[in-house]
Specification:
The protein has about 325 residues and is an alpha/beta fold. The protein is about 35% helix and about 25% strand. The longest helix is centred in the middle third of the chain and has 19 residues, at about 105-125. The chain starts with a strand and ends with a strand. The structure holds nicotinamide-adenine-dinucleotide. Nicotinamide-adenine-dinucleotide (NAD) binds near residues 162 and 220.
Length: about 325
């Protein structure tokens, strides 16, 4: 088997490669060539940690495996480690033998950023100019950096619950040569594309903060009870997701479905748009919303790419197992 440690990932995988891997696996999911296994997520009663597994099989891409890991809230303060910790395990689909073990921390950030970028590519208006960010934490910087590659954005506007964190995303905008402006939430009406990436349990972005024609990628809600945007916004939007089952149970759509504002059948897999079996946006006035819940297949797709590159460049550690 091969081992690709966390420290090697940054030099191996690019935003472009992550984007391609995620776009391809979303397409495979919609074509029923790939599926995710039920997610396990447990509060283990130790260190207040949440631990679990996300896995799946992509018959076309050939990735089989799982990401194991979770969230250890005291890591940073107690041990100087990041709080999110994960490792990806890949298996040979022909034999069941373990193929690779890959550091999953940076991969998680990259595959999540790739998901919102894929949604922008396929659902945002071609003439989008103003990029809006709700959230300015660790993951927000990755989302913004990747999003700015999808359209000719002329300005980034940002709001964050903790305003002192806004310089995190201002730095990313400026590095990409795009001016940044802090706004209040109604100021988001100026945005053509909005990414929300927060850990909130109640909505910040309301339906009347969003103008006609906007594309919104909701990326923070990945657990029951979390919520970033008003449920009424989903009722006004065409709603897309990575996986419908997750969207309506742990994603942003859980609230709109529970309130009877939309039905499960209103939520469309983005892979269908990629494959051309759903029309996606049909008018410049449509509000499109991508509910990015994060699926195991995204991790496997990007990890498979990393292993391929590590073997090619002779840096994968090979062990007899
Ligand atoms: P972080 O701790 O670095 O940042 C948290 C962000 O949420 C900050 O912007 C903070 O100001 C904001 N926030 C905190 N409380 C808030 C509140 N009450 N109202 C509004 N905003 C609030 O975390 P991160 O690494 O940036 O991750 C953000 C979220 O994204 C987490 O909830 C994480 O679970 C989720 N996530 C989702 C995926 C996916 O695939 N969908 C992948 C990775 C992370």
């Amino acid at each position: 088997m091969y081992i690709v440690p966390e420290a090697l990932i940054a030099d191996l995988v690019s935003r472009e490669a992550s984007f391609e891997a995620v776009e391809q696996v979303f397409a495979a999911m919609a074509a029923k060539d790939a599926y995710n296994f039920p997610v396990v997520r447990e509060a283990i009663g130790h260190e207040d940690a949440l631990y679990g597994f996300k896995g799946g099989f992509d018959r076309v891409g050939g990735s089989l495996g799982l990401k194991a890991g979770g969230y250890w809230p005291h890591n940073l303060e107690k041990r100087g480690l990041i709080n999110h910790q994960s490792t990806v395990f890949l298996f040979d689909p022909d034999t069941g033998k373990v193929h690779a073990m890959v550091g999953g921390n940076l991969l998680t950030a990259l595959r999540t950023a790739a998901a919102s970028s894929v949604s922008i590519k396929h659902l945002a208006r071609a003439d989008a100019k103003v990029m809006g960010m709700v959230g300015a934490g660790h993951q927000a910087t990755f989302q913004l950096r990747a999003a700015l590659e999808q359209r000719s954005f002329e300005k980034v506007i940002g709001w964050n619950y903790h305003p002192e964190m806004l310089p995190n995303i201002e730095k990313v905008a400026n590095e990409a040569g795009v001016p940044f402006e802090a706004v209040d939430l109604p100021g988001m009406q100026e945005a053509d594309v909005i990414i929300s990436i927060t850990s909130a349990f109640s909505p910040s972005l309301m339906a009347d903060h969003v103008s006609a024609g906007t594309h919104i990628a909701c990326m923070g809600t990945d657990t029951k009870g979390k919520q970033e945007v008003e449920a009424a916004l989903l009722a006004k939007a065409k709603v897309f997701t990575d996986e419908v089952a997750q969207s309506i149970s742990i994603g942003e759509a859980q609230h709109a479905v529970a309130a009877g504002l939309i039905a499960q059948s209103d939520v469309i897999e983005i892979g269908a748009v990629i494959n051309g079996t759903h029309e996606g946006r049909t008018s410049d006035a449509d509000i499109t919303l991508f509910d990015g819940t994060g699926v195991g297949l995204q991790d496997l797709a990007v990890a498979s790419k990393v292993v391929e590159l590590a073997i090619e460049r002779g840096v994968a550690i090979e062990v007899d197992f």
